[in-house]
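Because discrete structure vocabularies remain unfamiliar, we turn briefly to a single example record, giving the amino acid sequence and backbone structure tokens:
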Amino acid sequence: MHASDFTSSPQGQNAGHEPTSTVSQTWWSELTSYHWFVLVVAALGWLFDTMDQQLFVLVRQPAIAELLGQKAQSEAVARYGGLATSIFIIGWATGGLVFGTFGDRWGRARTMMLTILMYSLFTGLSALSVGWWDFAVYRFLTGMGVGGEFAAGVALVAEVMPSRARPFALGLLQALSAVGNMLAAVIYWVVFGLAPEEGLAGLKAWRLVFFVGILPALLVVVIRRRLREPESWVRTWQALARGENADAATKQLGDLREMFTDPRWRFNTFIGVSLAFCGVVGLWGIGFWTPELVRSFVSEPEQTLYVFLTSLLQNFGAFFGIYLFSVLTAWTNRRTAFAIAYLAAFSATVLVFGFMTEKAEILWMIPILGFSTLMVFGGFAIYFPELYPTRLRSTGTGFCYNVARYIAALGPMGLGLITGLYAAPSGSERARQGLSELSWLSSMGSVDTPLRYAALTLSLIYLVPLLLLPFAPETKGKPLPE
């Protein structure tokens, strides 16, 4: 591979530094047409990325039920569905680590296009599954593409954007993940409306939903000729390839070892992983259990409608919460914005899982939950690329954002175990009513279900970052490390 293989993108001379003459202007006024092109491409890649993973969540139950066969019991469907979800999350984490490194070694644009193709292809192949095992393999490989796209896309946007526009552009990119989730809910609703249980053209509805997931691959066809590598990455690649850097022998593109041998990057990695761990485990271990919470107090004939509505409202709130982080960090700084976001996540979780008991409350409590628990993810997109030099930016971002998912894969089981601890003694009257032995919530007008107490207990994880943030590097107003 030669330096001529890469074409740098037209970036301003002040990229990576605070502008001095445009402070009063809006952040988007600094963007050129190519800046907008990069932002739109990366945002669409991440939007379709989250759309594909949400399609799986929505059709997981009917897919597993059919693949296990007509004699499958509901318990088996739930068990294998949970296992398929864990396999998908593990694939997501693995892809983030593997393709994060590739993003530094091969280039951000190339890696992003490869991962878009990967998650599109294997989402489509999921529609052709003939058994549970090949379905699980496709979900793992889809997850790898999903996890890998984020690190490359975020690093690309971070390096191309002018410094003042960078946090807003990255916040918008992350916020559009909520739009991808909402788009998946609409696709699910439309396809299952057109193709009910008997299917359409010989295909079950869940298979048609997965076929729709192939469409993001068309994005690569459109962008592959115009999308170029960032100047900073090209300069770093050339310097290391020619040995111009005095440390070229020890510093390499995408070297995971350097993240742990260099004290600065090691400490930044500890902070990044810790912040992501609390946000990811909180979301997957609590936030994504809203359907089960809604089903606990909504009558069975209405559950499909209200679960669909819950998904839309939760992601509607998430869009604004994620983008608000960009505004908060512009008003304050990275550490203060994170502290506000984690406190909001804790408060919203207590509100919803502790006291949401009526259908009407879904309409305003669920958007608050989505707004608050997803806000920190806007911070991840902004902060993680600022913790690492160009040669490690994609690797470090992918590592911080995804390593927590290995543990998050156990989150659903963790909440289940904690729920069991709060259940009333077997055979008691409260156990027959599905209640906890505790009565704290009912004394305040709520319901004493074990799930609620378990969620409240696990929500304490949102308070852990408050102990770490005083020691976290403050990156606002500083150029990206080179």
